[in-house]
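Quick start: read one record
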Amino acid sequence: MEKSNKPIKDHIVPFLEYLEIERGAASKTQENYSRYLNKFIKWLKDTGNEDMKPHELNKDHVWDYRIHLARSPIPGKNRPLKKRSQNYYLIALRNLLSYFTDRDIEAMPSDKIKLAKEDQEKKVKFLSLDQIQKLMDTPDTSHNNGIRDRAILECLFSTGLRVAELVALDRSQFKIKENTKDIELSITGKGGRTRTIYFSERAVDWLRKYLKTRNDDDDALFINYRKPKDASRRLTARSIERKIDKYSKMAGLPVKATPHTLRHSYATDLLNQGADLRVVQELLGHKDISTTQVYTHVTNKRLRDVHRKLHGGRRLK
């Protein structure tokens, strides 16, 4: 290991390049890490440590930074960062330290940075099938916008796509004929991982109806009809989030629905119908099965309720 003569701040760009080239990180991941580490660099500057070198960072500095994160307000809001958000910043710093090790740069071990213990188990918001149907029925399909929005809802629930993956779809990927029942499509999602997604007969039917409304040359699958013809009409992730929020309120749903709520609902429905956790992991495109296991507390509750209701032990004397 060698000591670096450059301050930590000068290693950020090479680290982001390392994420791209050697770790295959998506541009969104690089963007997030850049934002998280910029907060750390700003903290170093504010505490008079702007020129700190990798080998000079120690556990006391990290502790002080954790205190800073715990007391940092959410931008625009008068409340501190959640433990989960604090961990995002700590994970970014931990990965920077791992990068130093990989490059034989002397620095404290990454495993010395402990993550904040979250206040409670991550909760998964999902909709029942009745609530999904209510949401699906909300768009006014007598108009083109409503047909498009119904197709969006159907596709999200049928595939479990992330909203960023949905908006990246192109019309050229779909060859839908009158007799097409369902569609199998290979996509590259988060982390550059490729997986297969499946569009149900219902989703294909609404896609067929939607595509019949299109008379433009834009290759984006889902477009904004009102955009100028010389600009990209591709819907953004934020615009789809706003639409689903609007429809969830119109449907009177008990939770604020988002594209990710539909992804959660997709996964929960599969598990409730008996799908293997590893299969759901593959369908969702999760790198690690521990990410998929967040859904098991939902299905475990269902199994417990079934056990309480049906197990013969309750009828024994």
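The radius of gyration is 24 Å.
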